[in-house]
Every structure is written in C-alpha cells, then in structure tokens.
C-alpha cells in the first residue's frame, strides 16, 4: 500500500506533510467538478490540500481557539452559526438587527483553516482577535500536532451525521456545484452526466470529498474517547432533537458556559432561534449573494434526518449500512442514535 493510501499517525503526518508533493498523489476526477487527491488514506479536495503544509508549518493555535471539524454535509453550516453566536454573544447581541449572522453567511464568518492558507490568507487567520472560531474538513490524523496536543489548549468540536443523509445532501450540493461551474465557464455546453448511481458507487468506495466518511468519523470519535476535555463529539440528529441542551453543552465545552441569569432570560433559546436552519435559510443574506463560486442558498436544503429514504432504495441503504458497520467493527461507535443514547 502506498503512503498516499495509508492512514497516518499524527507524528508521521507532521513529517510527511513537510515533504508533500501534491502533484505526485493519486488523482480522482470522477467526482465533478472537484479534483480529489488521495493522501493519508483519505480523498481530499486538491485546493484544500494545497493549504495543509502551511497549516502545519505556519499556523499558531491559541489556547482559546475552537476548531469546528466535520465531514462535508454533516451539519457544518449550522454548527458554525451555533458556535459563533454562542462564543460571541456578549459582543454581538442575539436580537440585534446587525448581528453578523444576519449580514453574512456562516461560511464567510467562520472560515476553513486549510482553505485560508491555500489562498495565502494565513495572515487573516493570524489577525483574528481571540477567542477565534475556525473550521476544517481535515481528518483528525492530518491535523497538526500543535492543535491535537493536549497542552495546546485548543478545543475541537466535531459533528457527525447518518452516512445515508450525508450522501444525499452531498449529491444535491454537487449538482449545484456542477451547474455553477458550467455557468461560470459560459461555453453553452451541458456538463457531463453524473448520475445518482455513479455518485453512490463512489461514496461506497470512499471516493468523495474527505472520504471515506466512516474513517473520518472514527478518527474524531477515538480522539474524543481519549481526550473528552479536548474533543467534543456531537451528533446532528441528537442536536436537532435537543438543540437547547446541546447548545449548553457546546458553550460549556468552549469555556463560555451560560450563567443562571442568561438561561433565565432566554439567551439559549435566542441562539437556537437565530441559528435554526429555517431562520438561516430565510435570511436575506442567504437568499442572495455567494460564497466563492456558490450561491449562499446552496448551503441550505432540508436538513431533515431520514430524508435519505426518499432517494435511496432499501437495497442501497442496506449495502451502505453494511459497509459502515464493517468499517466500525469493534470501535464502540454506531450511527444508530437510539442505541448511542441508550
């Protein structure tokens, strides 16, 4: 097995990243319009991977930093909004009409760490005032040791989601991305066909942005078991069911727990309401404008657990469930929220 395909330990990763030649890594182009490169056992966006060496060599984490980590389409946008609103509630009153979330998309407020460095914008990250809220789609094994080390003080919040819903959401997001890329090209040609079935086959093979999903989740799950004070592991479905209790858990973990007075005056409810998917979707800023090449509205769909059943056949669901179950064998982790909550 080549180095690009092998999962790396954090120590091995630090050495290998410094010598990384992205052009030598396996390339996957069947996931339009994204170019994926395989490294450390994962398929990563080429443009994100370009920033990883700088994240390892230049980025200086602070003890007050919070890094939001996720596999794509697993509640990333929502988590960014919740974490930012919670962490900055003193500076930005939640009911204020000029709250940043009413004026900017969550992805414009909480930037991807590796993308910032890929775009030579590391100085922007360095200039952010503390406490900083940052984000990443990198697997745990590819994070710099300066972030994962217990003594760094930097906290990591990870959110996971049922793989079947994550796949369906990524399929619709990819369709929008392909359409946006075709519109930018202005060639008048239709983009090449990319069927639901083709996408599903690739997903089952772990070939997708940051894939395989199950390996991505497992890395953060195991880290949260080793260092629960360092890594908070959240489930999208559980957060939807009990948003207020999970926001309180998030605040306590980030070091900004709600006071008795704040809870009594409805601050937690205000955050949940401001950051609800329905509220974010209906804000004017998210009905227009764009984040890079993508319209803000592209980041919002249904967000409903179990929507996969409207798109995936029972046979496909059974196949994916079996792949995930086999991959997680012996880990103690399950995507079954009922079993996990028991």
Automatic annotation (TrEMBL):
<dbReference type="InterPro" id="IPR000863">
    <property type="entry name" value="Sulfotransferase_dom"/>
</dbReference>
<dbReference type="Pfam" id="PF00685">
    <property type="entry name" value="Sulfotransfer_1"/>
</dbReference>
<dbReference type="InterPro" id="IPR027417">
    <property type="entry name" value="P-loop_NTPase"/>
</dbReference>
<dbReference type="GO" id="GO:0008146">
    <property type="term" value="F:sulfotransferase activity"/>
</dbReference>
<feature type="domain" description="Sulfotransferase">
    <location>
        <begin position="63"/>
        <end position="332"/>
    </location>
</feature>
<dbReference type="GO" id="GO:0005737">
    <property type="term" value="C:cytoplasm"/>
</dbReference>
<dbReference type="GO" id="GO:0051923">
    <property type="term" value="P:sulfation"/>
</dbReference>
<protein>
    <recommendedName>
        <fullName>Sulfotransferase</fullName>
        <ecNumber>2.8.2.-</ecNumber>
    </recommendedName>
</protein>
<keyword id="KW-0808">Transferase</keyword>
<comment type="similarity">
    <text>Belongs to the sulfotransferase 1 family.</text>
</comment>
